[in-house]
C-alpha cells in the first residue's frame, strides 16, 4: 500500500511545510479543477506520467498553460523523436500507486516510484502559490515551489526545474541538454520485460519437495505473519526505509569529500562543484537504494530460512 492523502498531509505537517487544502468534487482535468480553485489566484498544474522504450518512467509537472511537445522533450532527453509515450494506467496503480487523474509529484514519495524521474516546469519558480492534488483528485492543496522542493528533498528526490517549452537543437555538436534526467533504474511494473525480472529470492529445488510436517509448519508461520502484517498495517504509516536511506547517505558522505577534492584540482568553481555533486547524487540515489534494498531483502530471506530450519529441527527432535 502506498501513502494515503491523510498520511501525506501528516508528512507535510511533520516537515513544517505550510499548505492550504481545498475540498471539491472529483475532477479529471485541469479545466474541471479550475472551476473550483481557479479563482483563488494560484498556479494550476498539469501532470503526466510518460514512458520510454526501455520502460523508464517520467513524471512531467507543468503549469496548466505550458505547451509540452513530447517529440522535442524526447530528443532533449536523448531518446529520439518517438522515445516517449503516455504510460498505461497499470503504471499509475503499480508504481505511483494513484488512480487515473491523480498523477502528482507527491506520489514519488512511494518507494515503488523511487526510480521515476521528475521534470518540473521552471515556471513554478515565479509563482507564489502552486496547486497540486494530494494523491486524490477530490482535494487540491496550495503551497509554494520552495515548500514543494523541501518535501521532495526530504526523501532524496532532487528537484529538477526545466524550461519545458524550449526547443534547443540536438545533434552531433549539441548533445541532449536533459540527458542527465533520464532515470538509471526501472520501476517495478507489470510491463517490465520478463528477461529483466529478478528471481533472486525465489528458490527452485525440483527434487526437494517439503514433507507434510514442513508444509504444515510453513502454513502456520505464514498465517501468523499475515495476521501480524494485517494488524501492523492498521496502525503504521508507510515511511521511507530508514536503514536504506542511512546507507545511501553514508555512501555519499564518504564519496562527496573525495570527489570534491579531485574536482578542485580541475579549478572548478564552488558553485559548479555543488551543482555537480547534487546532480551525481540525484542520478545515483535510485540505484544505490535499489542495491541496498536487494541486499536487505536477501538477508531477511536467508535469516528467515535459517530460523525456520532451526525451529523445525527442534520441533521434530523434541
TrEMBL record:
InterPro entries: ProX/PRXD1, YbaK/aa-tRNA-synt-asso_dom_sf, YbaK/aa-tRNA-synth-assoc-dom. Residues 24-151 form the YbaK/aminoacyl-tRNA synthetase-associated domain. Gene3D superfamilies: YbaK/aminoacyl-tRNA synthetase-associated domain (3.90.960.10). GO terms for molecular function: aminoacyl-tRNA deacylase activity. It comes from the Eukaryota. It holds the Pfam family tRNA_edit. SUPFAM superfamilies: YbaK/ProRS associated domain. Residues 187-209 are annotated as: Disordered. Belongs to the PRORSD1 family. This is YbaK/aminoacyl-tRNA synthetase-associated domain-containing protein. It comes from Miscanthus lutarioriparius.
